[in-house]
Each structure stands twice: as C-alpha cells, then as structure tokens.
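Q: Is it fine to ask for two folds in a single conversation?
A: Yes, each is treated on its own. Send the first.
Q: Here.
A: Result:
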Amino acid sequence: MRPRPLGPHGDRLISWYRQQKRDLPWRQSKDPYRILVSEVMLQQTRVATVLPYFERFVRQFPSFQALASASLDDVLKAWQGLGYYRRAQYLHEAAKIVAREYQGQLPNQPEMLASLPGVGPYTAAALASIVFGHPEPVLDGNSVRVLCRFFGIRGKPSLAQNRRRLRNLARHLMGRNSPGDFNQAMMELGAVVCTPRKPRCPDCPLVVACRAYQTQEVDLIPNRSRSGNLPHFHVAAGIIWNDGRILIAQRLPDGMLANLWEFPGGKPEAGENLEECVIREIREELQIEVAVCCPFVAVEHAYSHFRITLHTYHCVHRGGEPRPVGCQRFAWVRPIELLRFPLPAASLRVAERLLQSPIPTCLTELAR
C-alpha cells in the first residue's frame, strides 16, 4: 500500500492536539533538560505515575549541571518508586556527558542524541523533533497503534519489516511542518482517544479516513501478542541486627536493580528452606555468620516480566567482619536511617513496616 498523505487530516490532527492536549509540566517549556527527563521517565511508565516524580526531580536537579554534580545515591533516591532504575543511572551518565562534552547544552543532531546513555531511537526522535524541529518520527506504543489502525496494518508491529514500514509511513505523513507537534499529537491521540481497549473513535480527528474504523477492525488492530502468566519467585532476605543497627548492602553496578541498597538475601537453592537460604546467601555475599530469629514480613511485588514474594527474617550477627564479596558496599544503619537510602520497592515496604513494628524479644535472647 502506498502512503497516502494525511493532507487536511494532518492539519486537523495538529489542530486537535493544540486545542485538546493535556496540560503537562514538561509541555510548559522548551527546556531540553526538562524534556529529556520527562521522556526518560515516561519510558514504560504512565503519565499519571510520572507527574509527581517529574516535579520533585527537576526541583532537586534543575539542570544538566546539577544532575551531573549529584551523587548516584541521591539520584536513585529521587527516582525511588518509579521503577526501571537503570533509566535513572543512564540519565545521570547522560547529564555528565552533556555537562562535560557539550558545555551543558543538549546536542541538536539525532545521531548525537542517540549516542547518549539510555537515549534509544524513540527518545532521540522525540528530542530531535520536539526540541529542535527535526522531522524524525516517534514510534512509541501509542503512535504505532494510531498508524496501524489508520492504515489497517494487521501484522505484529514488533516485526522488523513492519517496524520499517511504520517508520516510513510516519515520516511520509509528518512532512516538515511542526514535526514536534505532529509526534506529540500522534502520541496524545493514542494515549487518550485511540486507546488499546474501548477507543473513543467518534472523538478522533482521523476517524473519517481510518481504515480500521471503516472495516470495523479497530479492536483487532494492531495484532497483540498474548501475554502468559508471569513467573513467580520466592526470595529470602535477612534483617541483620547488631547493637541496635541493621546491615544493608548495595547491589552490584550491573544487572537488575543495580546500585540500589537492600536487605541481603537471594533465591533458595533446590532442597533449601527459606531460613537456610538467608544464612547461606548472607555468608556468600558478606562473609559473615548469622542466626535467624523469627519471620518478619513477606511482601509481593511485580516487575515487568516476573513476580516475587520477598520473605524477610530478623537475624542476629553471630561472627565475622562483613566483606563486600557479592555486593559493592555495606553499611550498619539505625532503623530510622533506612529511608535515606535508595531501596527497591519491596525492600522499601519492608523498611516502612520495620519502623512501625516493635523489635522482637527473640533478638535480645539470641544476642546473649
């Protein structure tokens, strides 16, 4: 199918966006820093979730230089609860590069933008078009859904050939007039009107030319992969006490939840119960011996591709000097100090419950 220019429909789309767009804080300014922060936060995260984090983050770190000068712990703490923590680390690294190599000014070419840590093709295209007016199409989930329905593309959008086709269609439709508004209009349309389920077709500025609407296939396009049940894992961790303080460990700089602090522990091995897992994991990670006192709390948390139940146990330090063998660093902290550290969501819930709970008597007995 040859691309058919939107023509007046494109004008109608941009006009609709300028009249109906949501009043979002990153749209109130052309500041490249604020737009970059918003785009990184919005990756795989809903607008309603991002809003309070964005306001606090740019208030605490108002510029590339301010973010570059901050410690990673402070950045992760400000990001705490937003998830996908690797994004915060990449954003921190990108700010350092912009401050050091570009004198605090975001580079204006798409290929230079794409070279920054954490800035993939989608974010680079968004920045290039919204900030600098380059005609680079943005292919996020929302704009892809609009394109598939408008052109009646029934295949899976994730396939490479369909991805190339969608990019060419979007580039053709965009033209060179107001590429930033065009991209934002496509994303906004997909977010609030052309939604995955129960789309509001009568309110759509493109409905008169939408192929999926004409063929009554809106609910079938785009082709969505069926998602199975998420795997579920049990994890055990120790709340290790010594003289009124608790031992926490900082995760390694690579892998999931990199650089966050947590109560040390891990997954049980075959034939191992949760208490045995706690003792072994702490020995392997910190080279110390602990005695398990009693269960504390179990919390559940869902990540993008799996779920966990985190089982925590009060423990007493029995021997050995901690060594960061399976972690970056460790710290003995008073319970009230736990919330100063960037913690994963499940560990944060444990810490909050800990501050509201009495210390069990078995700890005193074991410590003797």
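Q: Second one now.
A: Result:
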Amino acid sequence: MEAQQRGREAAGQHAAPESPQEGSFRLFTGDRVLWIIIAALAVISVLVVYSSTAKMAYDAHAARSTTHFLRQQLMILTVCVPLIILTHKINSRVYNHLAVLAYGGSILLTVAVYFIGATTNGAARWIPLGPFQFQPSEALKVATVLLLARQLAGRQSVIDKLRIIPSLNPLRWQQPAQRKIWREGTWPILAPVLLACVVIFPAHTSSAVLVFFASWVMMLIGRVRIGELMKLLGLAFAAVLLAGMLNLGRSETAGGRVETWIDLWLHSQTEKPIDRLTDTERSMIAIHNGGILGEGAGQSAMRVEMIHPESDFAFAFFVEEYGILLAGVLLLLYLWIFFRAIEIFRRCGTAFPGLLVLGLALLITCQALLHIMVTVNLIPETGQTLPLISRGGSSTLFTAIALGMILSVSRQNDEKSHDMPKSETIYEK
C-alpha cells in the first residue's frame, strides 16, 4: 500500500499542472503589450479627429455638426476592433495560403482605380463605394508583405545561393544561367515587389517608396545575398531619377515638394505672410505653439490654417494641443510596435510568420516616422497619414488587419502551434 501511495505521489509530481485557462476561450490573446498600444492609439485618434475636424464642420456652413466626423471615426474604430480580433484568431498558415490571392486581387483593384477611381489633387486613389471610398493601395501594401514573406520562406534552404538581379543586357536573357536567375529569383521574389511599387507609384509616390523599403529590409532579414540587395538599391535610385526626368506619375508634384522643402531650409521665411505659408510651415508653427505641455484639448489655433490637420498633419496638431512630452510618448508607442515585433520574430523559429511580423511592423512604424518627419520639415511632404490615428477609412482598416496578423503570430508563439518545416528556418544552418 505504501509503495502504491508513493507511486501515486510521484506520478502527481511529474504530471503537468492544470492551467486555470485551459479549455477556456479568451477574446484577446497574443501580445498583451501590443493590445495596450492599440487601445492607446485608438483613444488618441478619437481626441485628434474630434478637435481637428471642427474647421471642416464650420466650412460646411453648419450642414454637418462638429460631432459628424467624430461619429465617422468612432464607426471605423468600432469596425476595427472585431476585425483585429478576427484576424488574430486565424493561424498564419491560412495567411500563407491566401497570399497569392490577396496580392493578385489588390493589384487588380489598384490598377482599376486609374480607370474608375475618384481623383483628388490630381491623383486617382479611391474607388467610390456609396458613402465610403476604398483605397486599394492600402490593401496592396499589406498583400505585398504577405506574398514576399511566403516567397522568401519557401526558399530559405537555398536563398543564400540565389541571384535576384538578372543581367541588364536583354540580349543575354536567353542564356541558361540568366534564365535560371529569372526563374528562381527574379520572378518569384523581386517581380511582385517591383510590380506593386510600379502600380502604386503614379498615385502615391511615398507609398511606393515605403513598400520598397519594407520589402528590401525583409529580403535582408530573409538572407538574400547582400550583393544583390546593393544592386537593387542602385537600380531603384536610377529608376527614381529616370521617372523624374520623364515626368512619370506624380513626379512633377514630388519635384515641387522637394523644391519647396529645400527652399525652407536655405532661405529665411520670417517675412512671408501667413496666407503664403506651406502646410509644413504651419505645422511647425503649431509645434512651436504647443511647447512642452501644449495649449490644451480643443485649444489649437493652427487647425483653421492647416488644410488637413486631421490626416496629413495629425502629429503637429497633437503637439499643439498636448505638448512635446506627450508627443514623445506617442512616438515611443510606434517604435514600441516595432520592438514588440522583433520580440515576436525571435520566438517564431520559422521564416514565414517571422518575416510577416517584421514586414508589417516596418510598414506601420516607417509610415508613422515619415508622417512625423514631414511635420518637422526633415523630409518633403509625403501625404502619409499617422497610422490608426489620422482620420481615414482604408488606412485605418488595413493597419488594423496588419496588427491582427502580428497578434496572430504572437498568439501562435504562446500556443506553440506554428508549423515547423525545416526548409523554412530563418536561422543560419
């Protein structure tokens, strides 16, 4: 009897302890810190949109109340919550299978915009859907990262031997070595990125640059040969110069913004009347007015002077009302998204989910940094919104989808439910 008792006690000691959460359904899973960041950005979005759109309501000659745009933003954020919950409950292997379909559909819709889309400021970007406007280039940014993660993951066993840049001499493309480069490197890895950039470029140059940069970093992390990546950078720079000389896409607009940006740095603007100030200059005045602690909620003076304080210059508006200290916290929230993505990446162990997380985090964080750098005149105007904060539907919705995908990978890390194919390891053998 004593032996049996000791055996039962030993078995009890080696048995896995029962978790109180085992078998229960949790609505919010994955990285808790990331959930907190999302909630904080959503609250800031409500504050920014409500105060910054007051001018728009008055410009409409009382046809819309000051709460009209707030209700719109609340509706979008309300849609985003179940969207994030849904996407983070889907396993990353499903996203792997849907990558080609999502990319192809986004390409077709983005091309369709140039024929059936609504045009604003000389650029066709939106497809009208009743009272809403859908911007498919936002979907294409996420889909490009998704497809590239799939393509790099499936080639990890040979990626360091592949070349992705073929010869620049078309007469050599029929040679067996060049055909191999096209078949194994150029078409599957490089072509989807370049096609996405070319399709986005005519309407939104900065978004094309953002997609290219995120993809380039993904290829670097995905162990594409560094020599090939440096060639790609050189070719991309040459392509941008050529597009400018040929006035392709919105090159004229981009060139004008660059000239304005240079002029702001080289010449004094103190004698310029306020009606001739650029939006960047007005955003810098807003930042100066805000100081350390800000003017207070609803006390912005420059919101009536800036054209788009609720979208393109949301960060400057936030600084004016809430001060540089809280604006620094806001900047840290975006950087924190990327650092959390690095931590999630380190725990993945396989290429697809890891590359997907880093690529999506790069899109979000770099877009935020581009927006902020414009407001302080570090770079020319880009038209990039502040992710999850600026007023807008498509950008907010697809940012929510991207965050949901990141949380999906994080959840699977916690559950240890990732597929582990040996050919997809992202670590050196």
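Q: Anything structural to flag on that second result?
A: Two points. Strands lie at 118-120, 123-129, 132-134. The two ends are 53 Å apart (CA to CA).
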